[in-house]
Amino acid sequence: MLKDAERTNLGIEPAVLLDIYRQMSRIHEVDKAIRSGLSAGRFQFTYWPMTGQEAIPATLATLTDANDYMVTIYRGIHDQVAKGVPLKGLFAEAMSRQDGLNKGKGGSPHISDPTSGSMLTTAIVGAGAPIANGLALAAKMRGEGRVTVVNFGDGATSIGAVHEAMNLAGAWKLPIIFMCQNNQIGEYTKIPEYTAGPDFAGRATALGFRGVKVDANDPIAFHAVMKEIVEDVRAGKGPAFVEAVTLRLGTHAGFAPNELLTKDELAAGRENWPVPKTRAFLLEAGLATEAELAEIDGAAKTEVDEAVAFALASAPITEEDMLTDVYGDETVVPRRGVYPVREEEAPVSGETKMMAMYEAIISVQDLAMEADEGVFLLGEDIGDPPGGVFKTTAGLQTKWGKERVRPTPIAEQAIIGAATGAALVGMRPVAEIMFSDFMGVCIDQITNHAAKQRYMSGSATNVPMTIRVLVAGGLGGFGAQHSQSLEAWLLHVPGLKIAYPSTTLDARGLLASCIFDEDPCVHFESMAMVFGAPKQAVPIGDYRIPLGVAKVRREGSDITLVSFGWQVNQCLAAAEELAKEGINAEVIDLRSLMPLDYHRVLDSVKKTRRALVVHAATEFCGLGSEIASTINEELFSILKAPASRFGAYYSPISFSPAIEAAQMPNKGSIIARVREVMKDRD
């Protein structure tokens, strides 16, 4: 037994240690209930056990509160419990029930509960770190004094997203704690087999901020270290990396023992398991009686039993819930035979100014920042100078300062992750990706997180962010890694909205709509138009073009040419030449690709009874195939010829301007293709 002096000199308040045990007991009861329910077949969902790691979130719970943000991973149910996520909603969510925290949409690996500060759970290893940066950035910009904790396992230290996030956090001195729960096994692979550099805490030092390694199975020592770190981070001293060393006693997924541990390792791990070890210490130190601890354990069991009963009594979600929460507006979801009519923009009125497209893009960002202090810009080289590689942010940092116009490292995952995290808490970031091709570097952040978060959270959170993307094709000389038009990638991912203007005025109006939309938007900008589009009279004040409204650029009666971006101008030029042959082509500019204005497209084709969809992306599996197919299905009985599509050859874009010009549709090749479609005309 400890002596009286030792009991009063523990390095922690006895009440705090008792609170830590209370949280560990709750976590342990949740773990037991899940194992019991799964093995008995009472319910079924995927479970990644955290047995052995309970002391980490239990200790943090005594140092943070619901005002602080947390991001965790699919294995982080212990993090959720200690953060204060309601257990009834947690179990109902894991069982895909209507009363789940997220309407049953996210399930066990995608919990979001803003009320408790549990902002996001990701099932992609390491991907939460860049998003947590955005939460921390928002808190810093707003002066809120929040601390953000992002939890991940040791296996995530091999992921590039974590390195990008740590570098950005250090550069911007963000109030964030990178909590590496080092359970010594990355899924099914032990540390020595996946890295030759297991000094995870040392990686923070290399990036210019504090990294510490601590025994996370000793809640007293862990609390002492974390108390200082939380205080420092909250005081604005920058990020910290904590390597919390523990041991995962269970398997990667399921409820079997850890098959990667030897018998001796498992026995030693169980002896060092913080739940029973802390309980025994409380008794030995005379800090609690058996009756008091039994009461704590009993309360935890009752809470968990009630939560399980509540979840089982809740009705399962059904197919009727399938399309809710994909977007804020359910009518955006494309459905066969359902073609909403959206009101077009109001006529231009008020004071205007002649602008080139790049000037219009600068103007709308400027006005948005003036209208909403939550709007800020981030991206590579966007500060003054140079004002963006393509001068589309020129002067904005000079006017609005470095807080709201933020040049970033060359790190696309960090850029989009930070934008996503900031948007989760109501800011409206505008992130620039220099070339369309570079979306491949950050496609996970765009498609698995920004796009899906509203759905996975059951609209508990949403992501009102805008990604500006430059497309260099059509100019020549940029080559295979800088010239693709990759809208089809994104159109396969529900949750994103996509705009693709062809004129200066439309760039002004569509970008404004994107910035103030409640869903994540991608604004494609054709470099050929950014610098080559004719100047237009652009409203000085607020001007928006609704997403999902196409525009008739040229009226015609013989064939409908459907296009977007710089290809609209190729279609218009082709139409003028075709008119000399007696072919009167109507040109429809889609302007936004999601939502897509099928109503106006179909109305046009009903009149012309022929259609050709033209785009710069590869013809194979391009958007043109989707639109042509829909036209054929809907208007088969009246068409004079099957609707068709015309896109680029299936080849990487050549560095040779001559080859590139032949690869993508142009005025001459569009004319030739129209002639093919019209060959059987009356």
UniProtKB/TrEMBL annotation:
CDD domains: TPP_E1_PDC_ADC_BCADC, TPP_PYR_E1-PDHc-beta_like. Keywords: Oxidoreductase, Thiamine pyrophosphate. Its cofactor is thiamine diphosphate. It comes from the Bacteria. SUPFAM superfamilies: Thiamin diphosphate-binding fold (THDP-binding), TK C-terminal domain-like. E1 component of the 2-oxoglutarate dehydrogenase (OGDH) complex which catalyzes the decarboxylation of 2-oxoglutarate, the first step in the conversion of 2-oxoglutarate to succinyl-CoA and CO(2). This is 2-oxoglutarate dehydrogenase E1 component. It comes from Alterirhizorhabdus solaris.
